[in-house]
Structures
1.
Amino acid sequence: MKTRKIALPKGVNEGMPPLEVSSKPLSFFEFWPAWVMYTPVILQWLALSIKYRSMSLPLIANPRIPLSGMVGESKVDILDQACDRSYLCEYISTTKNRQLSNQENAQQALSRYYQAKLTLPAVVKPDLGCRGAGVRLIEQEAQLEDYLAEFPVNARFLLQERSLYQAEAGVFYIRYPGEKQGRIISITLKYTPWVVGDGIKSLKQLILDDERAGLLPHIYLPRHAARHDDIIPQGEVVRLAFAGSHSRGSIFRNGNEYITPALTQALDRFFDGMPDYHYGRLDLKFKDIDELMQGKNFQILEVNGASSEATHIWDSRTRFTEAIGVLLFQYRTLFEIGHLTRQAGHKTPSLLSLYRAWREEKSWVLDYPTTD
């Protein structure tokens, strides 16, 4: 498949390698329903359950995270386990109080945020949820009040400082129990999609005419409904998405060529301060790709658990058989790690507890605000 490199416009995706594109903006399976992609995983799960005599081993791969982070995990509770805070984008968390107005809830959260010596802009996100659900950029205090007007009561949220950096990646890390060093099995480069104005076309037309965005109007157009008819000046860049989530419109590229011993060692140092974390993906921002490869100048946004994907499979150039092979490898690894943690004395939870956590998370996600 022939590819070409696109130079990134100034101020967008700064620090990322040039974006490689091909004649195929989307793979044929890229936006298939999850159950279709995961059917082979489920069949393998059943086979491995017979081999290891347990269906629940993946749920203890990260024994200090409830259900190993398969579903319903708290972003705050995982980040709070980190001993070395220097790697993190700092945050505060609080719960929307039913007894307070939206304005009072916002003021209370901002007060705690400022007391932590953090400043706007910030990113607000639900504590429970995945795939970028409910993530927004807050540049002015009033925007938080508007966000909370749509946020469910008694639900917890994070207010996290915006990273110093623009470039973003998902880095999948595995460390088997008892080992002093881990390994990175995947790096996904996450590109913010954009269009550039020509002084003639409306924003809606620019989106529809874009090689990739035009194939996904259901993702981009609703988010920019208020600006559909705006004529974008010549050369002005409009970002089409903020959250680094594939399902929310970010462009994912396979970055495995950038895996280095130096980056792996940096993550080893970070996870030395998170005992019993063995498997998952970090979402992080970084200054530029060269410094990331040196294990320098990056900030961790989230640490995800057992349900994490090696998201480079959503690169449109990935073959279907390769994507399925990666998913099967991931879940074989989960069973292997779960087997070792069971031998160390950890008890497996019931599948009923997994179902209950899934139902709870799903009920919250339905009520979250729209994502930037």
2.
Amino acid sequence: MGRKIWKSMCKSAVLAFFVALFPIGGFCQDPEVVTDSLVTLGFENVCWGEDDNERVYVVENIAYRLNGVGLGKAIDLIQKSGMPEGKGCRLIVLDNNVPKISLYCGINAQADTTETVEITREDWDVSYDLGESWELVKKQKKKNSSLFKVDVVVYPEFSFRNIKISRMYDFLINLSPAVEVSLWKGSKFTAQLIIPVYNNYGYKYGSVRPGNISLSQTFRLPYNIFLTGTVGFFNNNRWGVDVDADYHFKNERFYLDARLSYTGYGEWGEYKNGVNIHPFKYGCTTKDMRFTFSIGGGYYWAKFNTQVALHAERYLLGEYGGRLDIIRHFKYCSIGLYGMIVQYAGNDGINGGFRFQVNLPPYRYKRTKHIPRVLPSRNMGFAYNAGNEFKYGKGFKSLPSNNIAEENRFNPLFIKQQLLNF
């Protein structure tokens, strides 16, 4: 009799263990284990919280070049670890500690808890909406914080032009490493060095010299408005202040954006007989400080991942103009055509060309604690000026990472496509 009681007790204990571990309807998720696993995958600024309506995870993707691929890994992990019962699950994605988008799955909030529901990537909605539960997690202590971690990002630069009869093209190839570090939420300090590899643009392009040195700050404002201000020394011999903002409608195919800059001319170096004798000396003037701007908006055709944008602009010499861009975004590259009409420019002010950005390998990389990473930029590319206009219609970049691919990196419609196809 005692032996039967002992066997019965053992069976009951084993059954209780498995019921606790794998309850009816799927196994329970331990959020702390999930966040630790997300950190192991290489995500930074990881935390979680929940209320009666949903459980929220927060991550920043610094481990995968393609956001859609990285976020796909994150939601796969969350699904395999077990979704919360009777409530939705949300993944909020940060960029430099600023919330950009969220992925939300609400199936379990409506499902019968006595049934097992199979959830796939297709069940996650991607949008700029952060949900009401964002308030639960925005002040939570984050695991694997990105603050004060240093990246040395090497930007390959390639330029060419056709202005001489003696040869078809002049070429300029640089490697421009930049130290990038986040000092507080939304901030980025950048200090770049330009190292010429091949140059027949002229003596002013042939010396090692500083490039972009700037401090930027990004804010997320109500109604899906993102605002970034940057001060410092920019490319194309500009220094000053640059502010850009973008607003995304509830129908996320449409957006508005604006950029306002107040800059002057300046350049690194002091030249004597064609030699840069003081490459780290900056010479500038305040006499020709000028406001420039770009105001417009666009539409994103999700079926073909094609973006159409139209802007009214003022350029560096004070001339006005308009610009139309049509850009097709692929998994590893973005390719576009542009057309411009610019005051005072040749060809009756009409110009155009093409531009492209291609993602650079490696496509996965992680930091090791606070050891600085050395890695190539996310992508590289150039624009081809078909009208050969070199004076009018010119602008500048306030950060070396600014390009058409980066602008699309947090597009919810593009990320949804990546989740389903890659």
3.
Amino acid sequence: AERGRISQPISPLHFLAAVMRSRLAILYLCMAGVFAITMPLFSKMLPFMARYVHENEGGLGATLAAMTIAQMLAVAVFTPLAHRFGRLPVGLFCLVAMPVLLAVTLAMLPALGDAFWLVSPAFGFLLGGAIMVIWATAGDIADQIAIEAAVRTDAGLLAFLTLVQKAGIGIGAMLAGMILESGHFQAGAIQHADALDAILTLALVLPAVGALALPAASVAVKVK
């Protein structure tokens, strides 16, 4: 279906039914939810990493700013690359490179020293590329829904994607609180080994697991 050919207005219930009937759309939204639950944990836990694991908060503000700038830079870099080589290769590169970066960070954490702060902008750069691919794929999913249900749902699908991601971020924050509590974390205190393990799990392990879960879904939705 060509964009714009189907222009009749639809009710929210009609749109919801069209989305619920599309296995492709359900898979896409579920994986976007997994992404939203796991990926933000890295930045949420960075202050905990700085204070309790790295034991140096001096460069935290600059590091968070560098991570944000790197995400914006990634859009400028990966968008033309995706246009030239396709979104699937770009998305797979970002999704595979993130867990590799996090695994190396976890393995070399004691020896990183001040280089620890370089991990954040590197992660932000790859994260920006992955986010770009996820949002750019929404148009393909809307096209598929149009073919299956004969309705255009572009704006509605983007609204649904935003809702899923907001819910995912909230679930991730709740998960972080539960895991920290299970590790007996105490703010401002010298942390027990279980609390340090909880921080590392949230900051490095869960984002890596979330990123690894997405390449299979990227292939399944046939990102082009």
4.
Amino acid sequence: AQHMDMDLSCHIAYADKMDYCSYGNLVTTGCKHSGDIRSIPNNVGTAEYIEINVNEMRKAQAKYVTFTCNAYSNG
């Protein structure tokens, strides 16, 4: 295991707009980001997550949610 900075984000598509949730925008309708976690605790597993409230997104009429994960290691 080695140090890794993982950046997770999601984009939400609506009929008439786009939104996103990432370490730079921690909370939006139906999404809550864990925050930027730059090191793996005890060098085991990985970190960063986005909690999705499907019912809230459905009420807001979200059409699609896509996820992107970038992983950086060793500078």
